[in-house]
Amino acid sequence: MAEPLDVLVVGAGPTGLALAAQLRAYGTRFRIIDRSLDRARESRALAIQPRTLEALSGFGVTDELVARGNRAVQLRMHVPGRVLRLPLFDIGCTDTPYPYLLFLSQAETEAVLGAHLAERGVAVERGTVLRDLSPQDTYVTCRLSHGDEECETVRARFVVGCDGAHSTVRGLAGIGFVGSAYPQTFLLADLEVDGLERGAAHTYLSGAGMLFFFPLESPATWRMLAMRPPDAPDEELSLGQLQAITDRYAASAAGAGSAAEAGERLRLRDAVWMTEFRLQNRGAAHYRAGGVFLAGDAAHIHSPAGAQGMNTGIQDALNLGWKLALTCRGDAPDALLDTYESERAPVGRNVLRFTDRAFTIATSRNPFIRRARTQLAPRLMPLALRFTTLRGRAFRTLSELAIHYRHSPLTEEGNRRPRGGPRAGDRLPDAPAGLQALTSGPGYHVLLCGPRDAWDPEDLAAVGRSGLVTVHHLGDRGPWPGTAHGLVRPDGYLAYRAGGTDLSGLRHHLDRWLPAPPHN
After folding, report:
1. What's the predicted TM-score (pTM) here?
2. Which of 46, 14, 2, 4 is nearest to 296 (CA)?
């Protein structure tokens, strides 16, 4: 039998690829497998949030993602008698390098992450299926099949299921998946649309439901998402059916009796792919069972409201990856792995609640809600968007910049807490500009604010951990005023902060979570 692995990653979608990228950055011994013979060519998820762009920047892939994507920052809301032109992200958000929602198909995202791994000698083992897993004292024994070949037995310290809503890993581990399916049927297509203003996202509000067109660059110019009307004929999905639904929704949103009267005839053509599907709202009962972990859609599945799904999965992976890597190296205690569920499960539950509420409002046939959706919301939204503070708060929530781990066991506030600036558990803002790039390398980063000569060299030497802790003297360009210090985790969140120059609290924190002696 081959030498045991540190980690077996099951599933090579965006979540699995992001996890593999982080494991590779730490030199972890792992394999990544996927039952599909090829990566996704159609666009499932279609947008990358600012926090995800920040989190992936440490791998050097964000610039390529931005170059391939479309930074649409305007929304066109089609309502009876007019088209509302709504700015969404012009709020002066200065603490991130990416103050926008990037429209990019999942296929392109996977292509960029896959190329990153290939350049570093990591190959996705496609056509490989997990048949069984058996957790034991030290390892998880897995049985894999490769096409018609005989099964292979693999041992790994940890197995991570990144294998989607129908996760084999979750089923074999006996982890429940709680929730329900929505009754509506949805239609999805990537295609070309004549008569639609480019460079913006479009939504048509009607009593029957909602119709969206999102800008993409590849594999087609537009992504169409629509709810099939309850009285629509149950027939095989076709471009003609999509055209009929578009005509109906556009006419209804314009308050006219027909698409011609509405003056908004949109011509659909050249569909790259199309599908119909049902949505679910489910969450895993646990994110961990011994040596088995879940991430992404294997842990939570929900409606696409707010473009949260793929982004939440990637951030699951980047929360878990460094914890697995440091534990496998022997540099961190096993207790570090317990913080994955305590940090990410609340995030997953919040996403399930938010998307469920948004979806219910968008699809409800209750007369009061339908009236609010089609008549009241178009009148109130332009007024609400005049309030920059309100827009900014909404943006930070949707963009996932507001996610924090303040209540995590991995988070600690030291003595003499600085006044102002990010708190322990918050994401490190990119303010002053370039702070995130400075701390994007593997390992922890110590930030020292104040005069360089204020810090005792012996105290600084005591926080070293064999290349896993990097010290940065920031002077007066730090995130806190005056003399202060903090510790940035490998995933860009603050694990610790304190005022003054006494590093004893910082050393105590590191002794607890990174106690391994330096390697010779």
Report:
1. 0.90
2. 14
The residues near 168 (Cβ < 8 Å, ≥ 6 apart) are: 10, 129, 130, 161
Same domain, 48 and 132: yes
253, 78 in Cβ contact below 8 A?
yes
- Residue 14 and residue 137 in one domain: yes
The confidence score (pLDDT) of residue 258 equals 42
Same domain, yes or no: 357 and 482: no
264/213 Cα distance (integer angstroms)? 14
Bond prior to 97 in cis (omega within 30° of 0): no
Res 259: pLDDT: 44
Cβ-based neighbour number of residue 295 at 10 Å: 34
CA distances from residue 253 to 212, 214, 257, 260, 383 in whole angstroms, order as listed: 12, 17, 10, 13, 20
Starting at the edge strand found earlier in the chain, the sheet holding 484-488 runs 412-413, 494-499, 484-488, 444-449, 469-475
Look at the chain and report how many structural domains it folds into: 2
On whether residue 148 sits in a domain, the answer given is: yes
* Domain span holding position 172: 5-61+102-178+280-363
Q: What is the pLDDT of residues 244-255, one digit of tens each?
A: 989 988 887 766
In this structure, the answer to whether residues 331 and 475 fall within a common structural domain is no
Are 436 and 499 members of one domain?
Answer: yes
pLDDT, residue 465, reads: 79
Return d(Cα 426, Cα 424) in angstroms, integer.
6
> What are the tens digits of pLDDT across the range 5-47?
999 999 999 999 999 999 999 999 999 999 998 876 666 778 8
Residue 306 lies in a domain: yes
Calpha distance 268→271 (Å, rounded) = 8
Whether 519 has a pLDDT exceeding 50, the answer reads no
What's the CA gap between 423 and 431, in Å, rounded? 14
* CA 491 to chain CA centroid, nearest Å: 13
Q: Is 330:209 a contact under the CB 8 Å cutoff?
A: no
Output the CA–CA distances (angstroms, integers) from residue 201 to 77, 85, 348, 420, in the order listed.
8, 10, 26, 37
Can you spell out the DSSP letters for 472-500? EEEET-SSSSSSEEEEE-TTSBEEEEEES
